[in-house]
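User: quick one, fold this
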Amino acid sequence: MSVDNRWVVPYNPLLSRIFNAHINVEFCQSVKAIKYICKYIHKGSDQATFSLQSNNDEVEKYLNGRYISSSEAFWRIFQFSIHERFPAVVHLAVHLENGQRVYFYNNENLQDRVNNPSSTTLTAFFDLCKSDDFAKTLLYHEAPQYYVWQRNSFSRRRRGQDVEGYPGVKKDTTLGRVYNIHPTQTECFYLRMLLQYVRGPMSFQHLRTVNGVIFQTYQGACKELGLLEGDEHWQNTMSDAIISEPATKLRELFTTILIFCQPSDPLELWNKFRDALCEDILNRMRNENQDMTLAYNDDIYNDGLIIIEDKIHEISDKSLTDFGLPAAKEIIRFWTR
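Assistant:
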């Protein structure tokens, strides 16, 4: 058997020895070779057949996933009830005085609608307590058990169990559900709290009246009634932080307490710790004026309030006045964040 060049794969001896691998290099001296190197220059780009499908096809999911058993088919063919809600629930509005929503048509006078808004369940409950002795014994959420809400007013139920001692009053199983209010809506939140404890209120002012004293805020009335927890926990938190944290961190902590912890008296908390919250501002003013005898004053506290309000704006859309703190003057001289 003879072996010639046909049995040997073309290779470049020098490159194969240098790289210790099979390597072959050839010189393309024909013009036609460029067509092979470029792999069919006229065939176009590579192509593939594919399709796009949406995984959020609710109709297709329903068609693929729906299964009706014989029992369900029988139930639906005879049109038996599929669901039931018991007892009935009446949603009760919560809003500040003159803070209810006003709806109107394009052909109506806007100012007239604003001056004469429709009654809400809350204002109608106030009116009911003025004229109905039995209503004066009820809490706001208890009213739907004895009264029907229709045509923007409450009227006594005609069916139900008789109430002993009150002829003509009927009790039903209907529940009243007062809309939830987030604690950041401070006054409205405390108004809702009072509605859970004050029976037979006849006005917004009545809710703010405790032992003959009319409070300016609903929060003050709640505090007088003992419905709020004290701020001892937050005072202890600030006192512990003062030991090791600088004023910049204390302001961050104070802002967090205001926004997320709902202290019952933010003003008292500020008055108690404002020196520590503004300590770096005082030090800077002393250095700028080269006077180590400078003491805390209203200007320093004002700068501290501005910084705190800026931090509040970074987290929420509230302002200092929303938390019962004094509004700051827009003047800053010496401060750091």
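User: anything notable?
Assistant: The beta strands are 89-92, 147-150, 153-156, 161-162, 170-171, 175-178, 209-210, 213-214.
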